[in-house]
């Protein structure tokens, strides 16, 4: 809801939710309780993952960026600082770079294999077709239309030219002098 349409209970509810999230993230880690495998995610990381899955991180980004919701800015800032509590800036920067470089390498490799496959298909298609274009459109016998003698007409053009066929096709028209023209 817009802040104009919110009632006092809604405002209190939002503030209580933000305080709850802040308090949950504020719980200090207990190394004796978290005896997992080296690569295993800590409890803090799992809480952050659940916040991400639920969409709470998007809501926090909205609250931080919206000028109409500036009253929650300090709560959101505190939550964000608690989210990055155990992280050093160098680790965060290296994590993004390494993952992006690995993904970029995989994408580049995949694109290269696709390009090689496409080039091979193109070469195979080029070998299958002749290099010169054949102008031969085919020969067709027009049954029922007689040529000289008792034979049927043999038509040497494409079928799309069949409608414009006449016996005078390809003949030079007889030139009539100007003074004899109608």
From TrEMBL:
It is found in: Nucleus. InterPro entries: Timeless, Timeless_N. Pfam families: TIMELESS (PF04821). GO terms for molecular function: DNA binding. Residues 2-141 form the Timeless N-terminal domain. Keywords: Cell cycle, Nucleus. GO terms for cellular component: replication fork protection complex. This is TIM protein. The keyword Nucleus applies. GO terms for biological process: DNA repair; DNA replication checkpoint signaling; replication fork arrest. The lineage of its organism: Eukaryota, Metazoa, Chordata, Craniata, Vertebrata.
């Amino acid at each position: 809801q817009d802040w104009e349409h919110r009632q006092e209970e809604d405002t209190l509810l939002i503030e209580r939710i933000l305080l709850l999230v802040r308090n949950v993230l504020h719980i200090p880690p207990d190394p004796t309780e978290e005896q997992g495998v080296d690569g295993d995610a800590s409890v803090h990381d799992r809480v952050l993952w659940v916040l991400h899955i639920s969409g709470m991180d998007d809501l926090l980004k909205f609250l931080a960026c919206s000028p109409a919701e500036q009253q929650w800015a300090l709560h959101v800032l505190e939550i964000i600082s608690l989210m990055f509590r155990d992280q050093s800036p160098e680790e965060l920067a290296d994590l993004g770079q390494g993952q992006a470089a690995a993904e970029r390498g995989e994408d580049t490799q995949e694109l290269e294999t696709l390009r090689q496959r496409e080039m091979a298909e193109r070469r195979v298609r080029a070998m299958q077709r002749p290099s010169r274009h054949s102008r031969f459109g085919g020969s067709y016998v027009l049954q029922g239309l007689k040529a000289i003698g008792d034979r049927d007409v043999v038509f040497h053009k494409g079928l799309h030219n069949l409608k414009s066929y006449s016996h005078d096709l390809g003949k030079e028209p007889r030139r009539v002098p100007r003074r004899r023209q109608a």
